[in-house]
Amino acid sequence: MAPPIDSPAAAVPNDSKAGDNNDHLVQSADPEHPANLIPSLCAKFWTLGWVTGTGGGASIRDDDLVYIAPSGVQKELMKADDIYVLSLAAQAKSLDRRSRVYLRSPPRYKPSQCTPLFLAAFTKRGAGCCIHTHSHWAVLVTLILETETHGAPSAGGNGNSREFRINNIEQIKGFGRGFGQTGNLGYHDTLRIPVIENTAHEEDLTEFLEESMDKYPDTYAVLVRRHGVYVWGETVHKAKTQCESLDYLFQLAVEMKRLDLPWITDIEPVKPTSTR
Ligand SMILES: CSC[C@@H](O)[C@@H](O)C(=O)COP(=O)(O)O
Ligand SMILES: [Zn+2]
After folding, report:
1. 169 alpha carbon – ligand 1 mean position (Å)
2. What family does the database annotate (predicted)?
3. At what angle do helices 236-258 and 34-47 cross, to 10 degrees?
4. Which whole-number Å values give the CA distances from 43 to 197, 211, 239, 263, in the listed order?
5. pLDDT tens for residues 179-229?
């Protein structure tokens, strides 16, 4: 396989030996270590159809260090030894935003093309984990929304192809209110997920993803039309459960559309008649 395109490490931690490529950064017996967790999570995601045929992936941030999968590999078969490691502090000092400074680069691969999008979640939102899926349900929702703009909004949508909206579904409670805010969305809250258009090259999505983050400061996800979804969270646990909740809602929304059921409904909150 071709060598990595991005620049090798300019700075290495003091405890590294020269020439060892900082392999110790990905060597741990702890299954929760990011270098072990990314492969095990991706193996689970593959069973859900989220990272089929090398598409999709996941990245984890541990303080200053970001762990990234290689590009174009079967994500469900990755090993810890395949993982790239990048320092956010070193990256912030880099003058060229498009070149990246890796503390560890497996020589046989290139880093994931999703890297700048994962970095946006870490630097703009302080996320601890970002997941990218090519789930059928995410893609179908963007296709349904696309048809909404060509003609009158039907019962299933909201007439705005750049935003997915749904309310009055219990699983909405699986989402946080936004970074820096406490608690989760409520049953009657409306979940809004922005949609950006796909580009020929993954990294060209970055500016549009960042734009969406600015426009929707509370969002934990951005849909990419005809492509998939990026979902993040403060922790791995939160990114994973939000991604699962979203996939559940996308599947439900597609089935609702088939049944001509609306995604947005006006339901009066039911008041408890007695206190326990
Ligand atoms: C099936 S190719 C998909 C890629 O172009 C991209 O969309 C993707 O999600 C994965 O990119 P990768 O560089 O392999 O991590
Ligand atoms: Zn992708």
Report:
1. 32
2. Belongs to the aldolase class II family. MtnB subfamily.
3. 10
4. 28, 31, 16, 32
5. 888 999 999 999 999 999 999 999 999 999 999 999 999 999 999 999 999
Which one of the ligands is nearest to 223 CA?
Answer: 2
| Residues 263 and 166 sit within 8 Å (Cβ to Cβ) | yes
- Structure tokens given for 90: 């070193």
Pocket probe mutation, ligand 1, options 84, 114, 142, 226, max atoms within 8 Å of Cβ: 114
Which strand (E) or helix (H) includes residue 68?
Answer: strand 65-68
Catalytic residue among 170, 202, 234, 268: 170
CA angle 259, 263, 266 (to 5 degrees): 115
Q: How remote is the C-alpha of 81 from its chain's centroid? A: 22
83 torsion bin: left (phi>0), alpha (psi -120 to 50), beta (else): beta
Measure 16 CA to ligand 2 centroid, in angstroms: 33
Q: How far apart are CA 261 and CA 157, in angstroms?
A: 9
Instruction: Give me the helices (H) in 20-76, please.
Output: 34-47
Ligand 1 pocket test, pick from 202, 203, 223, 230 with the greatest ligand atom count within 8 Å of Cβ, gives 202
Cβ atoms of residues 231 and 243 within 8 Å: yes
Instruction: Using CB atoms within 10 Å of the CB of residue 259, give its burial: 0 to 12 exposed, 13 to 18 middle, 19+ buried.
Output: exposed
37: Cβ–Cβ under 8 A, 6 or more apart, which residues?
31, 60, 236
* Catalytic-residue membership of 170: yes
Atom of ligand 1 nearest to the CA of 134: 9
ipTM of the assembly? 0.98
Q: Report pLDDT digits (tens) over 119-132.
A: 999 999 999 999 99
